[in-house]
Amino acid sequence: MTSAVIAQWILERTGLNPESLGPRNIERAVAAAMEQAGLADPADYLERLQSSASELQALIDALVVAETWFFRDREPFVFLKHHVQSAWPASHPNRRLRVLSAPCSTGEEPYSIAMTLLEAGLTPEQFHIDAVDISRRAIETGRRAIYHERAFRGHDPGCIDRYFHRIPDGYALDERVVRLVNFQTDNLVHPVFLAAQDPYHIVFCRNLVIYLTEPARVLFLEALNRWIVPHGLLITGHSELTFFQQAKYTPVHHARSFACTRSGPAENKSTRHRIAKVATYPAAPRPPACLAPLSLATSAVPVPKVEPDRNTPPNDLNAIRDLANQGALIQARARCEQFLKDHPPSAEAYCLLGLIHQASDRLDDAEAGYLKALYLDPRCVEALVHLSLCYERRGNAARAALIRARARRIEMAVTQSA
Ligand SMILES: C[S@@+](CC[C@H](N)C(=O)[O-])C[C@H]1O[C@@H](n2cnc3c(N)ncnc32)[C@H](O)[C@@H]1O
With a 6 A CB cut-off, is 138 part of the ligand 1 pocket? Predict the structure, then answer.
């Protein structure tokens, strides 16, 4: 037996895609854990893993990528505040807002949610936050709630001054906020996870699904439907919206919030209007070109049809993206092609064209669009993510995984330089 068998065994339990973690990182983590356990034979170590929960936990802790920070991506929290102030608690006077942060890593995300809800005017009695992660080490860090400067690289709406105090080893979060988050170590891809819980009104699920294997993702998306109330709000990671759209979530039109709503039992036009109303928020600044949210459903999932605005000028990529999101794929394609004729070639435009083709099930054309985008900008994460989905749909899992790993490396590099 080789350590690769061990890696496979553990990855099947976490649902994580070996390519996204980096095969060499996995080998190193397994070798270090075996040395720590004083075992040279992989077969003995596997036996230990199967019989010892703490050994298994130590290996998981060594394998996962727990990268996170306060108010990550900024706009989801701006959106959360608006959403809560405009749609809650007036419409739910006696209901407690239930929020899930999964995976929560070392706590920066659920605590950012807690501070945002307080800033939105909710009292601690008006909401409940659960936070889950598979890494016990990450959960312990979250419970300790002492953070270093690095955890604050995101946008800070004045919260550091209001909710933290300086101590010799960093910044300690105010006990009033710490009390608001219920941490739990658990495996989100386990079939019975959260089966007995009341569902949540808002779920933050960011930077997990993109790194799961296809079977784990399917399992996870099915479970997610049980955790979230009909029309509940889901906040995804910036390159993950597409996965959720395929699972019948509808994007909210607030730029860079990466939010979507879960379809209700009988999604119809009036529901759509409600979503549109909830989604009317002040415009956010435009994201850098190739990181803009490109959120089109594939043709496997019909986008609710609304009448496209046929007066939209054809020279605005955002308008073209909206048109495509409304289901007007033929017009969107024509306008995108026209845009490319009228403007210098850009990764963003080719990536959008790829998405429009993909939504029409034209995988060859979609692939060509993404490859052109990547030729112009090899670091275009959106093109990489969607290209990997194209390969996945064609059954080329190995190639899909390689491309996703490349996207992951670029994201990590961006994160580290932020
Ligand atoms: C990159 S962090 C994301 C944290 C936060 N959501 C964010 O976006 O900043 C990914 C987290 O997923 C956790 N994770 C990976 N597989 C998991 C699983 N099967 N169940 C629960 N958590 C998992 C890891 O431990 C890690 O802390």
Answer: yes
In the structure, what pLDDT confidence band is assigned to residue 415 with cuts at 50, 70 and 90? low
Q: Which phi and psi angles does 257 have, rounded to 5°?
A: -85, -20
Ligand 1: which atom is nearest the Cα of residue 69? Answer: 9
Give pTM, 2 decimals. Answer: 0.70
Among the four given CATH numbers 3.40.50.2000, 3.40.50.11270, 3.40.50.920, 3.40.50.150, the one describing domain 75-278: 3.40.50.150
HSE value, Cβ hemisphere, 13 Å, CA-based, for 216? 19
Largest CA distance in the chain: 70
Is 156 buried (19+), middle (13-18) or exposed (0-12) by CB count in 10 A?
A: middle
Q: Name the residue with the closest Cα to ligand 1, atom 23.
A: 134
Lowest-confidence pick of 79-83, 113-117, 271-275: 271-275
CA 133–ligand 1 middle distance (angstroms) = 6
Render pLDDT for 74-87 as a digit per residue (tens, 0 to 9): 999 999 999 999 87
109 CB less than 6 Å from ligand 1? yes
Q: Of 177, 176, 167, which is closest to residue 70 (Cα–Cα)?
A: 177
The CA-CA-CA angle for residues 239, 136, 79, to 5°, reads: 35
Second-level CATH architecture of 309-417: Alpha Horseshoe (1.25)
Query: What is the C-alpha to C-alpha distance for residues 165 and 148, in angstroms, rounded to an integer?
Result: 12
pLDDT given at position 19: 75
Would the CB of 64 count as within 6 Å of ligand 1? yes
Give the pLDDT of residue 278.
23
Cα separation of 177 and 131, whole Å?
Answer: 13
Residue 16 per-residue DSSP state: B
The answer to whether the CB of 105 is under 6 A from ligand 1 is yes
* Cα–Cα distance, 173 to 176 (Å, whole number): 8
Residue type at 383 in one-letter notation: A
